């Protein structure tokens, strides 16, 4: 059976499974729609949380970023997994004890203000909509490559699948669908990694294979990769940070507190019966996430090695990488390159007309290396590889069986769709439960609220699809930006709401707005205001990364600091919270019971 047919069969079966589960677990009440009835077992919730969390960014992009950045890519591993530790220790059990459906509802009740609730909804919508753009784009990439349709058609199909199990199933349908999606994506991620680790090192565990000796030369895997990339003008794979050390630190913190503040993740801990179960499910989520996250460094390193070895045969033998016969002739390039060229994510340009592919760092600052490349007749790197293809193309690069390649396609789609569904539910509940019921129509019936939730979900899917089809100019960094927004706007106010009896509504509102505005200003000021100057960037903050070398992706930490500081100062010069709210905060932190926390 050919690759295309196998891919259609495996992806089709996975979609049938998701839709069957959604039909079986469809929601019949608002409690089931928003929090799956609050009765999900912590192990099942941990698995669903892992699928909700491990988005297209984790499955498709993270190993690609590690492959490109090497050691610098560790910010994603440390930031995202560290965020779950924060979530398990500092947020999940207390929010579960509070007994509400959504993050804005907690903020509105804790800060005794519909204005605070509305501002929280705005922050939630900005973060979630920004994040969902990347998921829909990932769906389009996976469909366009593996199912032979355009990215646009892929996004339409993805919208239809999510609509069928999210609108009718709500959180109940999404939860059990995400359990199935976790199983699909984790097998799709680990099975190719095991194959490749065996091929390169003889070790079936990729985590151990990364530190093992290579079969080809008997040398350590990472030492071999370091030599290859430095010989080709790239930075050392194992020691180069992501920018300055300050930026690396801020980037990691932004990802950590952004993880802890993302509403579609937090809402998962409202679905378990007790406070103990909320803490337990966070622990199980870490276990399930760790399976992929400990595999990712090996996937990234081995994909990088295999890519160089495909283009330059002397990578394997240890011979002269500049020898003309070592470079791959264009007419002999493997079929997988041609397939990815059609997507535009891999390109080749024969700059020196020799008919062979030179893949190296032509922007290296090492003048001796550049002189050597010029002496060899190289006129610039001739291949451009988008980091997003590294995981999806890895089985093809390693010449693995067709069924493994098809399984990876199903896994990539499962990762993108599971997170998209969680984000869309967070958006839907913010509109229907927090705005319509919480602010505009408190007396709405449960039936009409459920209908409003489904209509909001459908509208959110249409908006997500539109943004996936027409991504804004800053979409390249949407995932990191979403974490920065959550870190700077929602995380501080949730933390202060749990641990500070004196934080009042005015401080919380001003703090949220400050964090959101400061972060968005820096992002747009750094990237440039295209709407004003056409194709020219307008730098507003002293040039690229003008604030102590901090990149926009890392600026969420600065936004969070501003949020905490402004909220504290404002609360000190305004009226303290009512006494019953201060008792409520004490009650939330009492480590027993679950459900509605009250100050009376």
TrEMBL record:
Annotated Gene3D superfamilies: Sodium/glucose cotransporter
Transmembrane segments: 6-25, 53-71, 77-95, 116-134, 146-167, 179-200, 249-270, 282-303, 403-431, 451-469, 475-499, 506-525
Keyword Metal-binding tagged: no
Pfam families per UniProt: SSF
CDD domains, A to Z: SLC5sbd_u4 (cd11480)
InterPro entries: Na/Glc_symporter_sf (IPR038377), Na/solute_symporter (IPR001734), Na/solute_symporter_VC_2705 (IPR019899), Sodium:Solute_Symporter (IPR050277)
Subcellular localization: Membrane
Membrane topology: Multi-pass membrane protein
Keyword annotations from UniProtKB, A to Z: Membrane, Transmembrane, Transmembrane helix, Transport
Family per similarity comment: Belongs to the sodium:solute symporter (SSF) (TC 2.A.21) family.
UniProt cross-references to PANTHER family, sorted A to Z: NA(+):SOLUTE SYMPORTER (SSF FAMILY), SODIUM/PROLINE SYMPORTER-RELATED
Record-given protein name: Cation acetate symporter
Organism: Limnobacter parvus
Lineage summary: Bacteria, Pseudomonadati, Pseudomonadota, Betaproteobacteria, Burkholderiales
């Amino acid at each position: 059976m050919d690759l295309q047919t196998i891919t259609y069969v495996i992806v089709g079966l996975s979609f049938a499974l998701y839709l069957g589960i959604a039909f079986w677990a469809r929601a019949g009440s608002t409690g089931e729609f928003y929090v799956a009835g609050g009765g999900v077992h912590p192990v099942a919730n941990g698995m669903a949380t892992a699928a909700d969390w491990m988005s297209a960014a984790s499955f498709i992009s993270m190993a690609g970023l590690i492959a490109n950045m090497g050691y610098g890519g560790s910010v994603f591993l440390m930031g995202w997994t560290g965020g779950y530790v924060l979530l398990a220790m500092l947020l999940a059990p207390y929010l579960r004890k509070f007994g509400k459906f959504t993050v804005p509802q907690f903020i509105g009740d804790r800060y005794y203000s519909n204005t605070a609730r509305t501002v929280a909804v705005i922050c939630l919508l900005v973060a979630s909509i920004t994040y969902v753009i990347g998921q829909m784009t990932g769906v389009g990439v996976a469909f366009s490559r593996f199912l032979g349709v355009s990215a646009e058609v892929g996004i339409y199909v993805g919208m239809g699948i999510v609509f069928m199990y999210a609108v009718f199933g709500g959180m109940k349908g999404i939860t059990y669908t995400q359990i199935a999606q976790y199983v699909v994506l984790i097998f799709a991620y680990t099975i190719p990694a095991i194959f490749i680790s065996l091929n390169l090192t003889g070790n079936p565990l990729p985590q151990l294979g990364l530190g093992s000796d290579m079969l080809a030369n008997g040398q350590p895997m990472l030492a071999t990769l370091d030599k290859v990339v430095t010989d080709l003008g790239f930075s050392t794979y194992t020691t180069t940070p992501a920018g300055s050390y300050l930026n690396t630190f801020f980037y990691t913190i932004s990802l950590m507190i952004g993880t802890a503040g993302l509403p579609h993740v937090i809402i998962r801990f409202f679905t378990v019966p007790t406070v103990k179960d909320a803490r337990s499910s966070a622990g199980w989520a870490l276990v399930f996430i760790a399976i992929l996250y400990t595999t990712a460094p090996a996937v990234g390193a081995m994909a990088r090695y295999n890519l160089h070895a495909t283009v330059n045969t002397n990578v394997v033998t240890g011979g002269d990488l500049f020898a003309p016969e070592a470079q791959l002739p264009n007419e002999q390039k493997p079929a997988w390159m041609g397939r990815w060229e059609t997507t535009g994510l891999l390109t080749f340009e024969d700059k020196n007309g020799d008919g062979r592919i030179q893949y190296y760092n032509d922007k290296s600052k090492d003048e001796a290396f550049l002189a050597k490349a010029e002496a060899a007749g190289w006129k610039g790197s001739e291949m451009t590889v988008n980091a997003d293809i590294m995981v999806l193309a890895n089985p093809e690069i390693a010449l693995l069986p067709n069924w493994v390649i098809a399984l990876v396609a199903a896994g990539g789609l499962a990762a993108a769709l599971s997170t998209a569904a969680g984000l869309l539910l967070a958006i839907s509940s913010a509109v229907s439960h927090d705005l319509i019921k919480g602010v505009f129509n408190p007396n709405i019936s449960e039936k009409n609220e459920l209908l409003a939730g489904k209509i909001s979900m459908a509208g959110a899917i249409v908006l997500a699809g539109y943004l996936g089809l027409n991504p804004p100019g800053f979409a390249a960094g949407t995932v990191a930006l979403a974490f920065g927004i959550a870190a700077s706007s929602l995380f501080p106010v949730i933390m202060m709401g749990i641990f500070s009896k004196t934080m009042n509504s005015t401080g919380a509102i001003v703090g949220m707005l400050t964090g959101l505005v400061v972060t968005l200003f820096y992002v747009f000021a750094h990237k440039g205001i295209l709407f004003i100057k056409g194709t020219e960037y307008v730098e507003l903050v002293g040039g690229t990364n003008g604030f102590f070398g901090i990149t926009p992706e890392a600026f969420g930490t600065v936004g969070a600091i501003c949020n905490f500081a402004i909220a504290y100062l404002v609360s000190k010069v305004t009226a303290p919270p009512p006494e019953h709210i201060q008792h409520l905060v004490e009650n939330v932190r009492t480590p027993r019971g679950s459900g509605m926390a009250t100050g009376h």
